[in-house]
Amino acid sequence: MIDFGARWVGTFKLNDARTHIRPIIYFSGPWKSTLRVEFKMEIQNTQPSNKTYSTRRTQLLMDEEHLEGPEIAISDVLNEENGWLSNGKLSVEYGIEVLAEKRVNDGWRFNFEVNAAFDSYMEFPVLNGMLYSHLFLIRYHSSIIDDWYLLGNDQPMLECWENLLKVRVQKKTIENCLQIVHGVNLKISNSINGEFHYTNFEILLEANVIPENDLTIDFGARWVGTFKLNEARTHIRPIIYFSGPWKTIFRVKIAMKIQNTKRTWNFFVWLSRIKYSTRKAQLLHDEEHLEGPEIPISEVLNEENGWLSRGKLTVEYGIEVVAEKRVDDGWSFNFEGNGAFNFYMKFPFQGKHLYSHVFLIRYHSKMINEWYLIRNNHEKVRECMRQTVKGKVRQRSLKNCLQIVNGVNIRISMPKAIEIICSAHRFKFHNVLEYCQREIIQRHLDLRHFDVLADPYTYLALVEHNYQPFKWFVFILEFSMKLSLRHYLVHLLRDYDSLKSMTEHLKLVDLDSATGESMKMIVAMFIYGKEFTRMIN
């Protein structure tokens, strides 16, 4: 009944002399895993006995290794008066708590759902459970929690936990915070991070050989991590460059740090040592490179400084692409990371969220701006956003909306325009609606030229607005009147040969769903005729 993504087996093992037996538990995972577990095993007895056979300890458990229980003499087991057998059956009771886990090509991750890993622990109440962390480590990292303990008052702490539950902080969020507090290097999905090395540093440096490391970054290009000597050959610095199949420009945020094997601090005193790290934003062109911190070679070669680990110099890096520009194309922003914005708004989706500048969003959407002005509560604004997005907006179409909001001129097809218009209408992005209308008119896009059913999402978005394939022209007229697509509506009205044909179509339109401005334009068409369409444009 144990899982953790592996097959677990309970069995028994005889000693070499076949005089004693002990229970064992082992696991075989689909990957090379290491578990730190606390376990207990006890051989059950059916009779009261002064003697017990039990084991309780903490152990590192590698793949194919096993946990050993207490050893018991076979002669004791076979003596029925001792009560170890029940109907000829020897039973073992066990309990296992996984304190931490390390998988291949990944660091350790702690299990904060158990408190056995900590002598002194703090409780974090979360939705549907409780998390635990080392008390003194939490006090060290959080001055406010340390103040609570120094003041000797539990009431602020209780109020804090109650507020956490009120705002419904997700369990995963707290858990990731605790992993970082405990020194785990989490891989954040909105950025790319990793390490590269200069192996056999002293030998290869003398031979004037500088290694290149292919990095696990993509974006359709080859990325390389390597090192560069200064002209005097007294200093060295890590660099990262990329070579793409096209002329591409990236706007990136970069962090690089030369790792040291020696600790820089303990709980009581800070140790003095220079840190070599770089953090900056930069435009990166094809064949250009990102430069890390410069470090003297003499300092690297001094083993007491701790920069080399078995002759290897290691650099930790993190890259977040904020925006990208490809050949013959405009800039496009990365809305899956919030690093581009000092103040951002989150659009929650299953899996990856989207982020954009909050004041730009408020400027383009009167509806969202009113959420802030009326509610004046960030949690209520977030709830309004969740209800607006939930199951009603496609992430791809919202990305395109945000690109337009941020000033990107994207080229769109008719189905893509319809999809963006539906999302823009939901968020009341007026300028996005204007942009899409201009693209449709200037590029002579027509819904008749596309198979709407080829994209089920676009089809469902249209059905929501009463789309019926057999009367597409009436639908597009109703769609424009309902969403107040002013320019496109004029474009459609201009195509009518006579007021009679327009009247026949209007009889099939749900005029109750039309906006007041659209109805005024229809009335003006009856009064002024086609002259009206020339006047308004």
Automatic annotation (TrEMBL):
This is BTB domain-containing protein. It comes from Caenorhabditis tropicalis.
